[in-house]
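Design job #97: recover the sequence.
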């Protein structure tokens, strides 16, 4: 099991039990080049006010954003900023303030909690983005940066995206927007045009091994970190799901079903019986997390390959899928039907001619 962690950060829709959130994780691993770009631009006082940290889910984008936020807070004068890598000493008080969401210089925008269903909503709404205006109306106490992290930015609905766009058109001085994007193609073109995009790549097996050591994640079968890195496609989050939450069997079942040219209804029903029955909350959550990550990853991959039609189809279905999950939990609908339908829908999109 993963070592017990003192929870500092507010609850979020993609939390993993016992795993620190990005705000609590400290220095990112495997992204030194991106860090050098950011710190170098800041030291020359040329840091754009809008930045998109783009790349597959779970590779450390948000972790880097929070560590860079700490760097900005510790170095409020750009040309006097300490030139360092992502691993640097952070005062305990500052670390805890940032991790707990209590620092007055940082605003973290995420999906809100739905009190009715007792689950997180599937989108970031305009109400959350309006909080940015209130946040920016207060001046920074030390004259340094005010930092807005939107995580992930493609979770914004159209009203939220338009509200953010208005702020980005005339951003206040000493303000930086760090937009986390798993699928940047889903962002409004006008938002992308007002931000500089930095593309982050999946972590390699050496970086994966270092993260596993830090988090005390169970070791992969036969110690084969490279295999898990490949299965997780360089995503630390997916690797943790595979190793620490019994996801390896579920992931391999999903992968097998999606690879076959013909949809295997019998195998889909068998998977549904194992993850969608009563008393299998952990397995059901695992299935939905893996599907969520799979949709994000496939949409990103098809967009990179120039297959915009399939990428858009998957991106649109991503929202439908999350709404279906919320409905199943809110109204106690048949989980096995949800599993089979999800697998059939996803298979149909991937193999549509």
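Job complete. Output follows.
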């Amino acid at each position: 099991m993963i070592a017990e962690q003192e929870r500092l950060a507010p609850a979020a829709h993609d939390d993993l039990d016992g795993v620190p959130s990005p705000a609590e994780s400290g220095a990112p691993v495997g992204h030194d080049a991106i860090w050098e770009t950011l710190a170098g631009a800041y030291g020359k006082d040329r840091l754009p006010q809008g930045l998109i940290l783009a790349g597959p889910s779970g590779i450390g984008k948000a972790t880097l954003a929070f560590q860079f936020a700490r760097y900005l807070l510790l170095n409020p004068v750009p040309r006097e900023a300490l030139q360092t890598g992502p691993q640097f000493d952070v005062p305990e008080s500052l670390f805890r303030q940032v991790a707990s969401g209590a620092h007055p210089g940082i605003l973290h925008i995420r999906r809100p909690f739905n009190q009715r269903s007792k689950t997180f909503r599937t989108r970031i709404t305009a109400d959350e983005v309006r909080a940015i205006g209130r946040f920016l109306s207060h001046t920074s106490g030390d004259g340094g940066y005010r930092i807005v992290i939107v995580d992930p930015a493609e979770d914004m609905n159209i009203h939220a995206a338009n509200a953010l766009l208005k702020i980005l058109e005339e951003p206040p001085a000493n303000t930086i927007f760090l937009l986390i994007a798993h699928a940047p193609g889903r962002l409004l073109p006008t938002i992308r045009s007002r931000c500089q995009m930095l593309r982050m790549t999946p972590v390699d097996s050496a970086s994966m091994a270092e993260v596993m050591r830090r988090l005390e994640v169970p070791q992969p079968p036969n110690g084969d970190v490279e295999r898990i890195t490949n299965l997780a496609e360089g995503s630390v989050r997916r690797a943790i799901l595979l190793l620490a939450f019994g996801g390896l069997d579920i992931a391999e079942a999903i992968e097998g079903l999606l690879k076959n040219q013909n949809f295997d209804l019998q195998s889909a029903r068998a998977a549904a019986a194992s993850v969608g029955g009563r008393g299998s909350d952990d397995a059901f959550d695992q299935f939905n997390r893996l599907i969520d990550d799979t949709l994000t990853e496939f949409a990103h991959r098809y967009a990179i390959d120039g297959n915009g039609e399939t990428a858009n189809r998957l991106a649109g279905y991503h929202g439908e899928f999350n709404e279906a999950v919320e409905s199943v939990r809110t109204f106690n609908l048949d989980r096995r039907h949800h599993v089979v339908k999800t697998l059939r829908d996803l298979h149909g999109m991937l193999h549509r001619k």
